[in-house]
């Protein structure tokens, strides 16, 4: 019997002996990443609270009652009220709906656009890839925050303007990431086999290239959501973001800063803590995805 046939038999004998002695089969390695689990749990809890805000509070986040202004925490108002008598807990939940939705959508759109443009720029040669990368160089030559603020100022306040401004700028990193991955991938044997089999470049690009390079962009998107959330809050803090009286975390922080000297910290600190928790959760997910992809490679 050839030597190569004896190794599997010997290994099978060891496994069989282990089963006879311990009564259990060999354990498989667990591929569950603790960072991803922790991040998903943290983010999931916050997201569920925001989605089911009407079940967690009965107050209208825009309703004003000056008689109830600046009340402390109580069974009626879990986190108290602001200077206009608006319930802080209600504004925190409903404000997260807008801020998180805009932050996620302003990542999803550039992720899709940038991945496709980068794949095209890396897969093909010629004028089109050159135009794409020169346009990316032009956009990245301007400071990111300055360009977003200018676009929001031109387009006007509101969630739609912020979404358009961020999307128009943040597609560049995804394009560069996907282009670099495509340049490596296009020389692989299975890509050459697809071409030799007569498949079109478009089919190879969308069937094989983009699915194999998208993971790197997704990992980057986790940190990009944090950046977008910071931009939205900052713009609203300076009066360039969500239009009042629509609840927004940046507005809450701006409204509360004037009461910090008086020892009232809830208006400013509570939205800040929520933003930190979301950022921490996304960081855990991003690091976990990066570790999983590194192990698989």
Automatic annotation (TrEMBL):
TM stretches of this protein: 36-57, 100-124, 144-169, 225-244, 264-290
Native organism: Bifidobacterium catulorum
Family: Belongs to the binding-protein-dependent transport system permease family.
Subcellular location, record wording: Cell membrane
Pfam family, one: BPD_transp_1
Membrane topology qualifier: Multi-pass membrane protein
Residue intervals of the ABC transmembrane type-1 domain: 96-286
GO biological process terms held by the UniProt record: transmembrane transport
Entry protein name: Nickel ABC transporter permease
Keyword Transmembrane helix found: yes
GO CC entries: plasma membrane
Keywords associated with the record: Cell membrane, Membrane, Transmembrane, Transmembrane helix, Transport
């Amino acid at each position: 019997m050839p030597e190569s046939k004896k190794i599997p038999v010997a290994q099978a004998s060891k496994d069989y002996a282990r089963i006879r002695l311990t009564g259990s089969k060999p354990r498989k390695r667990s591929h569950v990443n603790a960072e991803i689990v922790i991040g998903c749990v943290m983010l999931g809890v916050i997201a569920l609270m925001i989605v089911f805000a009407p079940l967690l509070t009965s107050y209208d986040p825009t309703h004003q009652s000056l008689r109830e202004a600046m009340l402390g925490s109580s069974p009626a108002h879990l986190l108290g009220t602001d200077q206009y008598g608006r319930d802080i807990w209600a504004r925190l939940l409903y404000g997260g709906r807008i801020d998180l939705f805009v932050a996620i959508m302003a990542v999803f759109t550039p992720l899709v656009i940038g991945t496709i443009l980068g794949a095209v720029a890396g897969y093909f040669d010629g004028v089109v890839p050159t135009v794409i990368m020169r346009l990316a160089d032009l956009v990245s030559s301007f400071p990111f925050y300055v360009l977003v603020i200018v676009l929001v100022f031109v387009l006007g306040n509101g969630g739609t303007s912020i979404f358009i401004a961020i999307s128009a700028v943040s597609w560049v990193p995804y394009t560069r990431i996907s282009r670099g991955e495509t340049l490596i991938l296009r020389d692989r044997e299975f890509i050459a086999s697809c071409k030799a089999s007569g498949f079109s470049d478009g089919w190879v690009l969308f069937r094989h290239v983009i699915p194999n390079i998208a993971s790197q962009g997704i990992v980057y998107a986790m940190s990009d959501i944090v950046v977008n959330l910071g931009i939205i809050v900052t713009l609203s803090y300076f009066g360039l973001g969500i239009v009042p009286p629509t609840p927004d975390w940046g507005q809450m922080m701006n409204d509360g800063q004037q009461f910090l000297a008086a020892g009232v910290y809830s208006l400013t600190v509570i939205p800040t803590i929520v933003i930190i928790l979301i950022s921490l959760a996304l960081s855990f997910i991003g690091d976990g995805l990066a570790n999983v992809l590194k192990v698989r490679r």
